[in-house]
Amino acid sequence: MPTKIAAGNWKMNGTRAALEEAHAIAQVQSGDAQVVICPPATLLTSMPEGLATGGQYCHPATSGAHTGDLSAEMLADAGASYCITGHSERRTDHKETDADVRAQTEAAWRAGLIAILCIGETLDQREAGETLAVLSEQLRGSLPDGATAETLIVAYEPVWAIGTGKVATPDQVAEVHDALRDQLGAEISLLYGGSVKAGNAAELFALDNVDGALVGGASLKAKDFIPIVEALA
Ligand code: PEP
Question: Which residues are catalytic (predicted)?
Answer without folding.
Answer: 87, 157
